[in-house]
Amino acid sequence: MKSFLSAMLCALALGAATQPQAQTCSPTTITPYTYANGAWSQNAWTSIEAGATVGLGPQPTSGGSWSWSGCGTSGSSREQWITPSATCNATVTYTNSCGAKSSQWFTVSVPMRNLTAVQLSAQMSPGWNVGNSLDATPNETAWGNPLVNQQLLNAVKAAGFKSVRIPVTWNQYADSNGNISATFMARVTEVVNYARNAGLYVILNTHHEGSWLVPTYAYQQSANARLAKLWTQIANNFKYYDDYVLFAGTNEVMVAGNYGTPTVENQNVQNGFNQVFVNAVRATGGNNAKRHLVVQTYNTNIDHGYNYFTKPSDTASNRLFVEIHYYDPYNFALNENSSIWQWGAIANNASATETWANESYVDAQFQKLKSRFVDAGMPVLMGEYGAILKSEYDPSGTYRKYWTQYVTKAAYQRGVVPVWWDNGYLSNHQFGLFNRSTGAQGFADLISTIINNAK
Question: Which fold has domain 117-452?
Fold first, then answer.
């Protein structure tokens, strides 16, 4: 009996060992094809004339099922024929015969509109920053924000914002030769597509690059080369996107820790960065030959811009913006350790306010921008502005709302596009407006203040 059981167990074990193993069901690789100008081509993007019809026909041609969204696509037919009136993005999901799913983006680009920068700027207010995400280091979620998603950008658009500024720190994803990771480029493209799907203008920049983008002669040659290399790659990736996508060359370029008046050297090198950026983008051709570009004042400071900015030469006419940022007065708007929490004519506690950056100062600063730039055909992007929450002093946010109302309106009335700095956090001493996961409004009253004073 014992030998019989042993034999049976041995046979069962042998049988189990020789049974075929279950195969893992892997997603199928989708090959994108587009039909335009009389022929099919293996591309995930195509450029067409306004009013033309384009076909989207990915492969494989059989064996599974398809589902589409965006750009006028619908249903489950593999081939889609659409006639877009503006650049758009479509997403297709393929489910293979064993149930594994894979997705592919398609971008259909139409020509740039014949709009000057001033005309375009009139359509962009107000704007909002998706800060501390793609600019976070060492990765998108490292600073506590979730991955940027379509629901968030849809909510920003639904709230009334017209533009989103996407700060991006690129160099951390580049190799020693300056080649940007294809995976990261694809992720930035995905977020840009979220914004475009939502109907938002996009301002895409380089952010937190201060370790190498230093405005001194010692750094000039290497910084120019690296800046040109980054922007050549970025521009080539987005060269067929329409004029709802703008590029902003840099961010707050300065000598680290020096907030004083820039030297002639600092001014010359920083103005040179702007020229390198414009040249690099224009050289890539496509829609970039006429894309609207944003260049910066030194440290995005209004006074430094008014006094020292040099407009880059450009092969395109009337396609340049200039960028400044605004967080005055510092102790009210930025300094979480300050007991300054009141602002402006409604302040009633002298020890809790500063008077140097009151309403008349705001008006004077934005009037400088109007006379120096806007009236000369170069609109101004206020790429960042905001005041932190100080709920320990002002739980209802009365003074923050008043500051926001006044600054937003003063900027907008003078041709300046206001773009609120949102770092993603809704807690005290922060700038957040939306829940980054769901898109829910964290401060509906402040959001409506921005929207209502930029129209």
Answer: TIM Barrel (3.20.20)
